[in-house]
Amino acid sequence: MNKRKEAVNKIAAENNQLRKQLTKANRDYYEDLLVYMRGKNLFRDDYQLEESLLGILQDLIDAQNDGTDAMTYFGHDPKQTATELLKTIPPRIGNFIWFNLKLAAMMMFILWLPRLTYPNITFDAGNLLLASGIAIVSVWGALWYVGSHAFAKPSRLQLTAIIILGVILFGIMVSVLLFFKTSWQIRLSAHTSFTVIILGLIIAAILPFIHHLTELERPIYYFSLFILILGLLVYFRATRSFFRTKIDFGQWQWLFYVAVILLGVGIGVLIWWLGERRHRH
User: Fold this and answer.
1) pLDDT tens digits for 24-33?
2) Domain range enclosing 220
3) Three-class SS string for 120-166?
4) pLDDT one-digit tens code per residue, 264-276
5) 157 and 247 share a domain?
6) How far is Cα 162 from Cα 233, in angstroms, rounded to an integer?
7) Membrane-crossing residues (predicted)?
């Protein structure tokens, strides 16, 4: 499974490099086709998809060198071309299920990890599972939407609706985490939490030397490292009182939660903007 994933990443990296050889018009045409095919690839074989995309790119580069542009070579309806190509890629439902299980585990880990900053923590497995499910459905919905609209620029109204929907879904997920309780409660003692933190820091220290972190993995890695360090500081006598001080704004407490949510949304938008800016350059 890991070898196949590495092969997929290698093909995608080669694709990224070869696209630099395209003219702007040909690159825009090809990248629309690429976004559509990847966005519609929920149940298909990633390896064969990336091989197909790379083959298309190589054919387009050859055509460009012969003086033929993408629209002439592939036709004026790239969506139809992409749809026909997707039909040739066999489905792999098992891989899709396995990927979603890993994604759910990752989301539960990300949502649970900050609770290590509290001693004698109790976390709600049902609560985390529900919030993770909302996050996963939102991610797949976003991918489907991006793929479906790869060949049409969304209007300002559509973009506004997407942003509002994203904020609502994020608010629902946060509300579930804060207020929804289930009977699947698991309690960790202070000693167990401390042991988890130490093991996590050891793994974090070793991981960069044995595994190359991808662009997707780096934010998760640094977030986890940051939380683990905060969790460790809770157990130091010099910093314990500071981290255990309860923040209470009285009747304005709700405003504090709103500010935290908006800060999280702002950080997410900033990361997305930096990624888009880097991609453009």
Assistant:
1) 888 888 888 8
2) 94-280
3) CCEEEHHHHHHHHHHHHHHHHHHHHHHHHCCCCCCCHHHHHHHHHHH
4) 666 666 665 665 5
5) yes
6) 39
7) 96-113, 125-147, 159-180, 192-213, 220-238, 254-275
